[in-house]
Amino acid sequence: MTEYSVSTIYASDKIAQEEVNRLLKQEGIRRDDNLDYTCGIYDSNNKLVGTGSCFKSTLRCLAIDKEYQGEGLMNLLVTHLIDYQQGRGNAHLFVYTKTESVRFFTDLGFFEIARVGETLVFMENRPNGFRKYLNNLEKGSAQHSNIASVVINANPFTLGHRHLIEEASRSSDLLHLFMVSEDASLFPFSVRKKLIQEGTADFSNIIYHETGPYMISTSTFPSYFLKDDQTVIETQALLDIEIFTKIAEELAITSRFVGEEPFSTVTNIYNTVMKNRLPFSGISCFEIPRFTIDGEIISASKIRQLIQRDQLNLVKELVPSSTFEFLHSAEGKEIIARIRDSDNVIHY
């Protein structure tokens, strides 16, 4: 009987990394750009017959050589990854998988959150994780009938964000403002949350929510078994809409406001999918023209570019006073230093 072992594959091991790439390609899987741990299953002849990876709290890029499938190696692989995740303190885990693999992950203790047709299923290892998130959302008064929503990252919070929120607030009785809480931005979530709340403190009908791991996060970015970047973005948008629709039902949300996006391909596709799909769930989608000053569109990317170019004086007219004041604080100066050292400040 063949014996198998599971070993860590380090980023510096170029030969092993190439073996992983070949195995993934053989099994029709694109290597994910976001990986922070990779392991391999080896047979007694030191042949790589399986591989799997993690990124933060997700399991990714799982593949078993087709000649070795049916020997329980996927179970061995996932069990190893779960143990590894728990060892680094990640107890709440996520996986996105093809529909035909749902039963396998169900047997390993994962539960479905949402799915996109026959393409993708998003799962977590807690039976009531998403339900608990929904239950904990602040609902607001039941007397409101015109309830709007906005989802923003705010990296950092600009007058453009405020304009979108103002339009949504003015057009509704109650506004649920979702703040993307994943820390994948140059401005950390604790700062973005503070700037959003300070920059909108004068609006009286806003309820603030953290998105947690469910909305627009790396947990919900499927890519490794989708054929191309366009499909990845569209599927991600569809998955986010599936999750958002469940949240909207919980909060009786009737509309979602989004900013027009002339620059970002990703956001443009998101907006198109939302405008097409949300009405089927009884949710209106309003795309608001971007806020401009002297004919120039205000965007967080533009702010970051100005900071990187050491043109902080030009930022003052483009952000609320609370954002500008923060940039002069000790913590703000640390973020400015990171932006100036960053290779790419123009990203989603």
UniProtKB/TrEMBL annotation:
Organism name: Candidatus Enterococcus moelleringii
Role noted for this protein: Acetylation of prosthetic group (2-(5''-phosphoribosyl)-3'-dephosphocoenzyme-A) of the gamma subunit of citrate lyase.
Gene3D superfamilies linked to this entry: 3.40.630.30, HUPs
UniProt keyword terms in alphabetical order: ATP-binding, Ligase, Nucleotide-binding
Enzyme Commission numbers on file: 6.2.1.22
Protein's UniProt keywords contain Nucleotide-binding: yes
A GO MF label: [citrate (pro-3S)-lyase] ligase activity
Catalysed transformations (reactions): holo-[citrate lyase ACP] + acetate + ATP = acetyl-[citrate lyase ACP] + AMP + diphosphate
Origin superkingdom: Bacteria
Limits of the N-acetyltransferase domain: 1-128
Transmembrane recorded as keyword: no
Lineage of origin: Bacteria, Bacillati, Bacillota, Bacilli, Lactobacillales
Enzyme class: ligase
SUPFAM superfamilies assigned: Acyl-CoA N-acyltransferases (Nat), Nucleotidylyl transferase
Protein name according to UniProt: [Citrate [pro-3S]-lyase] ligase
